[in-house]
Amino acid sequence: MTLARRLGLAVLWLAVLGLAGAWIARHLEVSGDLRHFMPTARTPSQKLLIEELGEGPGARLLLVALSGDAPGELARQSLAMRDALDGDPRFSVVANGHDGGLDAIPEALRPYRYMLSPTVDGQRFDRAWLQEELDQRVQDLGSPAAAQLEALLPRDPTLETLRLADAWTPATAPELWHGVWFTPAPAADLAEATHAAPTADPAPATEASPRRGAGDREALMLLETRAAGFDPQGQQAALAAVRAAFDEVRGESPARLSITGPGAFSVEIGERTRREATLFGTLGGVGFGLMLLVAYRRWQVPLQAALPVATAGLAGLAAVALVFSEQVHGITLAFGFTLIGIAADYPIHLLSHQRPGRSAYESARTIWKTLATGVASTCLAYLTFFVSGVDGLRQLAVFTVAGLATAALSTRFLLPAVLDPVPRDVADLSLTHALLERVERLPRMNSTFSLGLAGIAAAAVVFVPGAFWENDLARLTPVPEAALARDLQLRHALGAPDVRYMIAVEGADADAVLAHTERMRPALDALRAQGAVADYDMAARYLPSLATQRARQDRLPTREALQAELDAAVAGTPFRPDAFGGFIDDVETARTARPLSAGDVAGTPLETRIGGLLLQSRDRATALVTLTGLVDPAAVAHVAKAEGATLLDLKGASESLVAEYRERVLWALGLAVVLLALGVGAVLRHVRRTMRVMAPMLLSTVLVVAVLRMAGVELNLFHLVALMLAAGLGLDYALFFDHAGHDRAEQRRTLHALIVCAISTLLVFALLGLSSIPVLRAIGSTVALGVLFNLSLAVLVTRRREGMA
């Protein structure tokens, strides 16, 4: 075939890959929802964990701090950012303490305040109480707060709206200063402020007013995004909106912006992973290309070898897009392209097994049986992920099987068309002669030695002290410790609830669980008084049960009775007799209205308050009680059990999910080993040859685990999948050593191919082992060790007694 024709075919191949890549880019959606890599939840804690991971409000919170300038200027910036973000559709909650929580009670709900507020439980609307309230309003109108109260008084002379807003304010809410939330001042500064003389411009009575150290305080904001915590695109857009708002209001101020929370961390993790994957991928790709140049001494070879690998990656993506409704998880992509590293070996085998006088097609045909055996066995093994019950692993199986099969087929039928018709025979290289001579002097491992080595490695695995499995998902995060500590600091300052423990109450419907949690309030108040918790929150705090609302309606006076009592109360005040007609109308509306349900508050700020505390499905409802400042989990668990509820430990739930996930992966790996052995045995049709081919892979797996254990590494799920990848590489090495037979020239070609494969693979995965991302580091170190052991053992175990002996 002429050079022009080969180049034309290569260009055509690249064009097809370009078109396929464009189609995939348009149709494939990358998901960041971690729930795709979780098994089906079984316990209440696990179900809640899965819900919270994706859609729960805890996963959507962004904690914002402004620092680096005078408190007055920071407060101005906080208020300006609140105004800029309040109408942004990317946020469901934008809070900084301004308006004292009145924005949570929209105009449409204010007539119902007497059904929502506990004031009615112990107070009659008689003339004595009304006159006492009106006398207080007269005094209020002479205070600096008069301008804020005037708009409320015609409809709310008792200021029930403010009482309700205050009742909805957590006891652990941040301090107010200059009208917005701020971090607490140091104790010494607060003490000095307490004893300081009044100033000409004092802060409001409800705000802390430290006079020293104020420059160290930070203005705080709490944002809840509409995008789920593991929606990287949505979280990225929300973070961009916050930063843009800050840049707009900062001006020339030296203020600094700090953002933490699950969404911010997921974006940071994604960016760091992309940066490191790009860096290591680039370095690995360059190293791979240089290795091929050195090994084959022709500039075209790296480009030719890259064609089947690129085809494999695109085929894997296209298969996932077609099978899984055009959605692929980001972890599937990361793992999948790592697994495609096996595919890079296929063109190397063809290149090394070429020889003068034989066409590339004939060389491909010669190695095809061995290559196809390895590919089919590996694909069969990865198909075991379909029995894992985990959607993410099924995606990984589809990606890998489609990618490896495509790489093998393109190496067999397409790559020969673009290879040089007169190749260099690597068997004639002096280096391969020298390598073969050294290999021939190595002793061959017999079965006794292999079993003894396996026993020693297994003993190390079992008896090395320390935890074997890593169950804590938090330890797999690449978020720096300083960032996690900062997040904890802002959570404490904002009074955000504990993200590990919460109480759950299950019932037939929403009203049943609301009523149940209402009955728990005395016991929870007792726990708070004892110091077991600093505070708690529940949906019934904002939306009482239907029975409570009806009881409050029954205590409200009729229009005529209230009018008579109000007339008598107004008579002794400066107010006009007709000043409070709106108040009469609101009370009558509350008395006769249908009680509010969760559906009635949809689309209001109140919905966001109860959305994460009241979970509903078709036939069940769950009310959650979040806890702040939990000190004594045992005491809370005892009270919860006595009240017919359950204290959920989400950390324990995550660990149990990880354990179940690991169990399924282990079963899948065990089945994969059986299928690998059956596949190899069916092709080789010889028990001893099959055992000789399988032995290096099995022994290498035990040795890798032993080395990791002796290095103090606690194994996680990513180590397990990486072990399977290393096993696939090891099977490939052993099969080709077995294929070499007794022909010394073929042995040299095989040795050359496997050394090039091993070095290129080792280069890529050793770089991953240096990553700061725990997932990439686990994959890289495991596969790098696997390559070393598999190649060494394939040489010592699989090679024939004759010839290469």
Automatic annotation (TrEMBL):
Region feature Disordered, mapped onto this chain: 194-213
Domain of life of the source: Bacteria
Keywords: Cell membrane, Membrane, Transmembrane, Transmembrane helix
Organism encoding this protein: Marilutibacter aestuarii
GO cellular component labels: plasma membrane
Transmembrane region(s): 277-296, 303-324, 330-351, 371-390, 396-415, 448-469, 665-684, 693-711, 717-737, 749-770, 776-797
Topology with respect to the bilayer: Multi-pass membrane protein
Biased composition (Low complexity): 194-208
PANTHER family reported for this sequence: MEMBRANE PROTEIN MJ1562-RELATED, MEMBRANE PROTEIN YDFJ
Full protein name: MMPL family transporter
Keyword Transcription: no
Pfam families linked to this entry: MMPL
The keyword Membrane belongs to this UniProt entry's keyword annotation: yes
InterPro entries, A to Z: MMPL_dom, Mycobact_MmpL
Residue intervals of the Membrane transport protein MMPL domain: 216-419
Main localization category: membrane
Compartment(s) where it occurs, according to its Swiss-Prot or TrEMBL record: Cell membrane
